[in-house]
Amino acid sequence: MIQSDDEGMGLVEWFVGDKGIIDYSLTLEGSENKLSRNPRQWRLFDIITAAFFAVVLLFFILLFTPLRDSMAASGRQTLLVTTTSDPRQRQRLVTLVESGHHLQPIEYCPADAVAHMPCEDPKRNSQLSREMNFYRERHCPLPEETPLCLIPPPNGYKISVPWPESLHKIWHANMPYNKIADRKGHQGWMKREGEYFIFPGGGTMFPGGAGQYIEKLSQYIPLKGGTLRTALDMGCGVASFGGTLLSQGILALSFAPRDSHKSQIQFALERGVPAFVAMLGTRRLPFPASSFDLMHCSRCLIPFTAYNATYFVEVDRLLRPGGYLVISGPPVQWPKQDKEWADLQAVARALCYELIAVDGNTVIWKKPVGDSCLSSQNEFGLELCDESVPPSDAWYYKLKKCVTRPSSVKGEIALGTIPKWPERLSKVPSRAIVMKNGFEADARRWARRVAYYRDSLKLELKPPAVRNIMDMNALFGGFAAALASDPVWVMNVIPSRKQLTLDVIYDRGLIGVYHDWCEPFSTYPRTYDFIHLSGIESLTSKSRCSLVDLMVEMDRILRPEGKVLIRDTPEVLDKVARMAHAVRWSSSIHDKEPESHGREKILVATKPLWRMPSNSH
């Protein structure tokens, strides 16, 4: 960013008041004229002269030295404190931005906010209960408690290494956090080499590399051939397992909390591997029932049998009938954990899981297809959920201690009954059968639209320009499906207050999450190359929240030089264009594709790579 000289500066006003006028008197002594000054007047003249030169000197110092930036930064800090501590002042600023009357860009946040996630703030959340890791789940501040500012990149930030090179190396300057490399380098997680972090592909349970580990699993699980497509890697580290599975045609979504291994999910996303921040604590994970064909834990340390096996029950809800569960590391045949290992096997037996193999410290189970064998007599007191418990509601939904019945999920969803990948992408899923006509029309519509994006709008939707994509209002995942043949991945977001169609997306072999866009998303800053959004105004849910806050959040998660595409009515896009200027994007509005009906237009915006001035830390 090129910053103007007067940005952040106030006007310097200086003048001499009436009492500063010097009185001169002229006296005659013989033939000589002499200027006579009172000693007091000499002193006053000297003071004013010195003050004048001091003001001039200060002006040049402010104009040509870093002190100017320091004072500007101080002013920004004051502005941020003001807009946070005074909700009325913040709301006035939001109103000015929305109306287009705030002509200057929104200020940037302090330099120490480079990795800020509003809903996973350690300082804020450390005051909460530790029970069931409640304090490590999402806890979002109210909008009026959040500074209205743009997250800066770290000092020395570079445009991300493109895919597929990024799987193996990323810029150190983009994430200058050495903790994982120092602690886990000997296990093959990652190491620093010059200006890069290098990822050998290892992990705590597979220091020889994820490839060898996956080869071992393939002896027991059909990892090739398209039977398995969607996977969830729990407690993923830097996501080498998920990144390696991509070569098998399996799309793994990895998650981990924000914890002492600073920014492990940010490392995963910088590598181009699907990931987001989450914690299995007191609530369901934000996915529908029977989403994943494979669920994996490699030393994730989730206490599956604690709280009457509540966490195992949640894994069971998410695992597709006929799907596979893999747990490596404690407590599987682990020293001094005999009881925990026995309890884990007992829960699996109570849920009628088929034991496929125990190979060293790795156990593999297969989930049954039916729901009739859960005994009423089991040591964990497990019971089947009644019909009042919706199987797929999962946005801020408290964990249940009852087991979801596979039969409560309508249609054929078990592995072996659904098509293999890639056929399942285009076939109407049984969970969408009541919307069959809408599903097929949606698929045709998005194939046409994506072709227009590429051919007419000249958008690059593949590497090296693009790898990580988000669709903020995905419906059936039609936009993602139209990109399936390219080496990109799409996080399909289903707004929690809209029709909950995320199960259809998973049945197609795609991935995504539920989310309410009146809250920040659970990801680090600068993690997506391209953001797609059809119907931006619908996400604020009848003014429950502001478009300004939504666009500031979009800016937070968008990488520098990343692009945003928004479809909406001309009136809405005119507002969005004004706000795009406020978040420092360059934007243009285009006609929609000729074949589409309605009044939509298309806004395309680019986020520049701007840098904070020096001495603004």
From TrEMBL:
Belongs to the methyltransferase superfamily. The gene is BnaA09g51770D. One of its GO terms (cellular component) is cytoplasm. The keyword Transmembrane applies. It is found in: Endomembrane system; Membrane. Its EC number is 2.1.1.-. PANTHER family: PECTIN METHYLTRANSFERASE QUA3-RELATED (PTHR10108:SF763), SAM-DEPENDENT METHYLTRANSFERASE (PTHR10108). Keywords: Glycoprotein, Membrane, Methyltransferase, Signal-anchor, Transferase, Transmembrane, Transmembrane helix. This is Methyltransferase. It is a single-pass membrane protein; Single-pass type II membrane protein. The keyword Repeat does not apply. Its main location: membrane. GO terms for biological process: methylation. The chain crosses the membrane at residues 44-64. Pfam families: Methyltransf_29.
